[in-house]
């Protein structure tokens, strides 16, 4: 008689658990969908929130944050976009809920037509994303980045020599630095890269196309994806795809040829070709991954160096502080090296403040919510495009009082140490944050150290020739601006020291 009881108990327990589960889910669904979206501007039922085509989207979104609060929702047709513009909210949503924000929004023009779904930066969460990201990490992680220090020093000294030869072209010199480093890391290219090389011109063209295609609202097909099936539509986008694919393959094929002749340098692409099976990537995917390194890593690093020069020229008092520190720690008989980094807090604070004051990617890169996120009573629905807007977050007045002021001192704690309690979002958020940040941080540091050290600032600070050139607040991609570079160290001595400084 007592036999069936355990079975009954088990069945009853199971049913009760299922019922409770269903109820909990329904309650959650009901609660979630009844929660409001974050506040935002009114929108048209069909067109959504109007974004003027000419607008600087990062500025526009930052204004919305000032008006509606730290998290704003806007409509893009029937889709929801969420703008995150304050530090706390970025931490709580982009970082802590990072698991639900690994995705990227569907970008028809940039992702599907131009990149044919092979660009890591735009790849959706899932198997392909994991394979690409794992492969990229092999050559971008901290340990690998450390091994690139000599080639970064070598190229940074060339920036100084180039500036001495042709100070007006300092923006091009920064570009050449960044491209040379990336081409060396990715393809083992050791021959010098000149700004006029057809290869460099082709790279800059690809970067330029990508920036154009990424600008929200630039291509109607992103609003109306069916357009891509209309014959003839998107011819220019297809052409851009063919151009970049050919360029990426050219680079890869050169490594293949060198491997066949037994003279390939150790580099990312050689590793990929030797380990293609392990990483399960097709030839096109490998070619694109190589391209992703300079697509994502060359212009960004160059802009970081340019912004530093811009910040220095505008703030002679900051130059003087760093100068004093360099005199004390490095002296004048040798050139700064990587090992000096931890002993140069003034320089570190200057770099942190430059990256805050003029973020390199003011709008950031959009993420996509893969499930509902509830934040302080608001709902970020699954499928929403989520922007962590760097320009707005770096202007959070609670974390960065008087945010427009360039003030490296804000990065020191009461004991004079660099603050570790403020997370910097320069390299993005959560699981999509920049895998190249170890390489990038080293590039920024060594160029800053060399530039400040070389241009003895106390007597001849780097100065803008036309201070009004900066007045409208350049962001992202500085226009050419003239800087007076007059090294105090005797030029001949400086050249000599640079020549002897780093040999690849
Ligand atoms: C100062 C220089 C750099 C800055 C400011 C920067 C910034 C960023 C940002 C903001 C993202 C998007 C993060 C997000 O979605 O939240 C990103 C992604 C990426 N960066 Fe960088 N980056 C820099 C240099 C580099 C370098 C040197 C490389 C490679 C050599 C690189 C490779 C990548 C790649 C492959 C991605 C795509 C990652 C993904 O979508 O999963 N970046 N970077």
UniProtKB/TrEMBL annotation:
Q: What is this protein called?
A: Cytochrome P450
Q: Could you confirm whether the keyword Cell membrane appears in this record?
A: no
Which coenzyme or cofactor does it need?
Answer: heme
- In this chain, heme is annotated as bound at 434
List the PROSITE patterns hit by this protein, alphabetically: CYTOCHROME_P450 (PS00086)
Q: Which UniProt keywords apply?
A: Heme, Iron, Metal-binding, Monooxygenase, Oxidoreductase
Q: Name one GO molecular function term.
A: monooxygenase activity
The similarity comment for this entry is: Belongs to the cytochrome P450 family.
Q: In which pathway does it act?
A: Secondary metabolite biosynthesis
